Each structure stands twice: as structure tokens, then as C-alpha cells.
Amino acid sequence: xFKTFKIGxxxxxxxxxxxxxxxxxxxxxxxxxxxxxxxxxxxxNAVVQKGDKVKVGQLIGEANGFVSANIHSSVSGTVxxxxxxxxxxxxxxxxxxxxxEGDEWLETIxxxxxxxxxxxxxxxxxxxxxxxxxxxxMGGATFPAHVKLAIPEGKKADFxxxxxxxxxxxxxxxxxxxxxxxxxxxxxxxxxxxAIGVEKAYIGIExxxxxxxxxxxxxxxxxxxxxxxPLKLKYPQGGEKQLINAVSGREVPSGKLPIDAGxxxxxxxxxxxxxxxxxxxxxxxxxxxxxxxxxxxxxxxxRARIGTPVAELIAAAGGDVEKSGKIxxxxxxxxxxxxxxxSTVTKGTSGILMLNEEKAVRPEAGPCIRCAxxxxxxxxxxxxxxxxxxxxxxxxxEDEANHIMDCIECGCCIFSCPAKRPxxxxxxxxxxxxxxxxxxxxx
Length: 443
Fold this sequence. Notes:
Elements: E1 23-25, E2 31-35, E3 45-46, E4 53-54, E5 59-62, E6 71-72, E7 77-86, E8 92-100, H1 123-132, H2 145-149, E9 159-163, H3 173-180, H4 182-196, E10 201-206, H5 210-220, E11 226-231, H6 240-248, E12 263-267, H7 268-280, E13 286-293, E14 300-305, H8 310-316, E15 324-329, E16 336-337, E17 351-356, H9 357-360, H10 373-377, H11 384-392, H12 396-401, H13 412-416, H14 423-442
Parallel strand pairs: 1-14, 9-10, 9-12, 10-11, 13-17
Antiparallel strand pairs: 2-8, 3-5, 4-7, 5-6, 7-8, 13-14, 15-16, 15-17
Helix pairs in contact: 1-4, 3-5, 4-7, 11-14
């Protein structure tokens, strides 16, 4: 029997165009542009300067505080400059520019394909290695992994949940990773279990990935305490709170974190990166990126180095920029429209989606007809139409009182609205403003 979460949710068309296409290695860029802010929290501080020679895996940005993450070179070559680079939204952020010369790796990194199953490190050493490797949440949130694994005093983790849902339409990077690196993934799960001291782990996978469910179920039959949980198709099941509810039946209280429900959630990509960091001494220098959409000749799943220009991946997949009305970093529900193609692959780049002109045009919004479909669809149990009205009128206290900060910005409200009203746009505005007000009160 397939499980799912209780409140809200929608069923967008899956469009998993690249699901059957194996992961292929992307070509090395001529110049890698590696941002120093690829995670939630403080940007890393550059520890290299113009003229420095670097190798693959070498530290080039040091974490600036507890909620931050190290940045490593994904290529070998010469640092041409440390300067501002355009991010996915068109803003200029600090980055390290490296002219690529060959592909020389640090000797300490195990580059073989040999599976290492024995976990020799203790929990503290594991978390330290994860921190040193600069691993963040690979599902898109990019929260530093070592912070999640640091269980607050007075809290206790009862189980680990591995997020293999990949409920965003079009994206297939996690699906391919589960199929092609399943043995390594299971070792990564066991490492994470040891890190947080739990004996039970669940791998949540939606029903449209039967091959991944079957393969991982067979592997888990030989393991103690790891269980694959097949899930119904429903967006946004990959959200932490929705996944916890679907898998365990527990609910995360308003304003609380997964650990308050006894859960720690990590993406499958994160679990694989943990395996490579702990067992292979490999920092996070590459990831799987899906390039897909209506104007892509060969929807693909690339293993791309961090800092690879997005335009190069699009060209490799046969993407037609001229025929695209919109290019999105991520999926169609929660991804962000790209202001230009100057940005590069980061730790949180799960996919590049290219939509044609017809799909890219937002329909003209009509008046709210009070149908409450947005209320039914909201997975957080909110009243999106009301939050939109408060934000339009700058009624921030009312927004806060109606739990606008609980919004996960999944887009279910605007997807379900028959009048095509820009509900999420105004909710994001309200959430951003209320967040600033709350932070100012704490100062």
C-alpha cells in the first residue's frame, strides 16, 4: 500500500522526459566560476588569490561560521581572479574564477570505483568529515549537512528519512542516482544513521520510480534497519514536513523543525555525497544535473563539476535557447526563472528546465471567486488567498498571525487557482517582510 501525506497537495503532470537516460559526464569547462555562497548561511571566505595553482578537491573557500559550508575547487588550474559573478537570479556574488589546466586531483582522494562498505569512523569523526567536505542538502535547500546532523541538546532523533521522492516535474537526477549508485547510497545511509545514533532509516520513493523502488528494496533486504517506503504520487511530497508525515504519520508542529518530530531528513544526493566524503575523502565538487524541457533535443542527466557554465550543459543536451520562452533553474513548481545564462552549476543545481513560449507565458489573472481550491491544495493547511490579500494591503501583523512563515513556497496555491492569480508572488512578499520584522524584534 502506497503512503502519502494527509493535508493538501496537487498532481502536476510528471514529464520525466530524461528518466531512462543514464548519467553522463559533462565536459570540463575552460573556466570554472565557483561561487562562495552555495548554501544557506554565511558565504565562505576565499582562501586563494589570483595566480594560485589549485587541484581538484583543494579548499578555496572556508566556512564563515557554524551555518556555512566549505567550498572546494572542482577543477585544476590557475586562479584568474576572485571577483563578483552573476548568480541564477542575476545578482552579483563573490566567486573564484579558475582557468582550467588538465584535471589534476589531490592525492588524498580515492578516485576508484571500489565500493567501501566497512564504516570505520565514529559519529564525531563522520560529522567532521562531512563538514570538511562542504556537503549541503542536495535537494535544493542547500542547508549545511553537518548542522542538520548536530542534534540540539534536549532533542533526540528516532529515525532517519532519505528523500528519494523527486516530486518536481521533469527532474530525474535523484532517480538516476538511485539506480546507478544504489550500493554506495546504502552505505551513505548507514553512515548517516551512525552519525545521528539511530537504528532505523526509511527511504521514501514515489510510485513513478518502480525500478528504483525494486532495486533499493532488494538491497535493503540484506540490511538491518533500512526500509524502502513506496509513496503515492503527490506534490510536494519531497517537502520535509510532508515526507515525515507520509512515512511516519508524525507531524512537525508549526514553527518547529523535523527533529521536534524525532526525524532527520536528508536527500539521496546528500547521502551519496556523504559516502564519497567519509569513505573516499572526496569533497563536494560535482553533482547530477538534469537538463530537460520542451526545447531540449536530448533530455539528459549530467555529472557536472561545480562551476560549469549552465550554457555549456544546455548546449551538450541540444537545448534551443532561441525557441525557449523561459529557462528555469530547478523544476517548474519551485524553481527560479534564470535572468541570464551567465550563472554556473552550484551544489543546489538539481536541474535546468527549458520551456517553450506557450508554457512560459503566465495567463492573465482574474478576480478571486472564493472557490477555496488554494486552501484545499495547501500542504501546510494555510489560507493562501487570505495571505495574498493581507500582503497586497501591507497588513503584515495579520500575515504573521495567520502563519505565513509556515509557507514552504511550493506553488500548490497558484497551480490550483482557476483564476490564475499570483498568490505565491504576494505570499513570498509577505513572508519576506514578516521575516524581517521577526528578526528585528530579536535584535
